[in-house]
Amino acid sequence: MNRRAVALFSGGLDSMLAIKLMIEQGTEVHALNFLTVFCTCTSKGCMHQATKAAKELGVPLKVMNITMEYMEIVKNPKHGRGRNMNPCIDCRVFTFIKAREYMYEIGASFVITGEVLGQRPMSQRRQAMETIERESGLKGLIVRPLSANLFEPTIPEKMGIVDRAKLLDIQGRQRERQFKLAEKLGINDYPCPAGGCLLTDKGFSNRLKDLFKYRTDYELSDLHLLKTGRQFRISESAKLIVGRDEKENKALLNFAEPGDHIFDVVDIPSPVGLARGRLGETEIQSIASIMTRYSDALTEKAKVSYRILPSEQLETLTSAPATEPALSSIRI
């Protein structure tokens, strides 16, 4: 066993502290960050946050985008979900397996995490952590510097690779000890603990359930679009997304694919509408009424244009705005 370790690294304070404590023990740390469309770390994104933090700590960073592979876990979690679509225990097993594979790839001997016992209700309970460790094939090889003294010694500790006396016994959701430790270790630039996972959000989870039900052949862009705009189930084969501001309008156009319909209201300020799926005359008329409703036309009829990508040829029709009851009945 050597002093090289893989650290699961979000770029948040706890994972930064865990790495710093291990570096001070002479451990060669290789940070591993996982990306999915469900991360809600910062406005600039999880990878930016992790890259910045790894640079500050002076450790190499590997970033893995695991979204599509991870979707199989989201659809069929062995250990169930939380209140929404979040398969927290299965998620941790999956990422630890990835960490184990990377550990073997680079010739490391153990894994480090910033986990704190009792901090998260599903995945950081003692029983859950033991299950995750066992099912990931890392029993005895996960060092948790912030809570290590609340667990049995790991193999690296027993072998003297890691000094257990320099590890901590933090538990629970309060973070005062982490803040004081950060000050002591000279870690001053770290994000607020407001990041999370969209799978815990009820609204986003409802959109994901709708996708699973109506589009089994979804692609990565479909998952990105779940985070954008107002969404409506037009029919079993078609969905409409309406931007709420300029940023979302641009996002819709960026994620649009050949075969998608792009809607706009002619000569009146309005959002962009993206419809994906098969549209007939009835669906197009319905979408036109929604677009009119969210334009500055408000209560008046308006001319709505649409095109089918990649064509630039426009078709137009006139439509009255949809009523609120009509919108509520199809809103996702």
What would you say this structure looks like, in words?
The structure is a single chain. The protein is α/β, with parallel strands linked by helices and 332 residues long. It folds into two domains: 4-185, HUPs (Rossmann fold, 3-Layer(aba) Sandwich); 202-330, no CATH class. Helices cover 37% and strands 17% of the residues. Strands 6-7-9-8-10-11 form a six-stranded antiparallel beta sheet. Helix 1 links the parallel strand 1 (4-8) and strand 2 (28-35). The N and C termini lie far apart (52 Å).
Helix/strand layout:
Blueprint: E1 4-8, H1 13-23, E2 28-35, H2 46-57, E3 61-65, H3 67-75, H4 88-106, E4 110-112, H5 126-135, E5 142-143, H6 155-158, H7 176-185, H8 202-214, H9 220-225, E6 230-235, E7 238-242, H10 246-255, E8 261-265, E9 273-277, H11 281-293, E10 302-308, E11 315-319, H12 324-330
Parallel strand pairs: 1-2, 1-4, 2-3, 4-5
Antiparallel strand pairs: 6-7, 7-9, 8-9, 8-10, 10-11
Summarize the structure.
By secondary structure, the protein is an alpha/beta fold.
Pick out its properties.
about 325 residues; alpha/beta; Rossmann fold; six-stranded antiparallel β-sheet; five-stranded parallel β-sheet; 11 strands; elongated
The helicity comes to: 25-40%
Name the helix and strand elements from N-terminus to C-terminus, one letter apiece. EHEHEHHEHEHHHHEEHEEHEEH
Q: What is the CATH top level name of the largest domain?
A: Alpha Beta
- Strand percentage lies at 15-25%
Q: How many domains?
A: 2
Q: Could you describe the largest sheet, including whether it forms a barrel?
A: 6 strands, antiparallel
Judging from the principal axes of the Cα atoms, what is the shape? elongated
- The CATH architecture classification of the largest domain is 3-Layer(aba) Sandwich
Largest sheet strand order = 6-7-9-8-10-11
Which residues form runs of ≥5 with pLDDT under 50?
Answer: none
Query: What's the number of extended β-strand segments?
Result: 11
> What is the terminal-to-terminal distance?
52 Å
**Using only CA atoms, what is the Rg?**
24 Å
Number of helices: 12
CATH topology of the largest domain: Rossmann fold
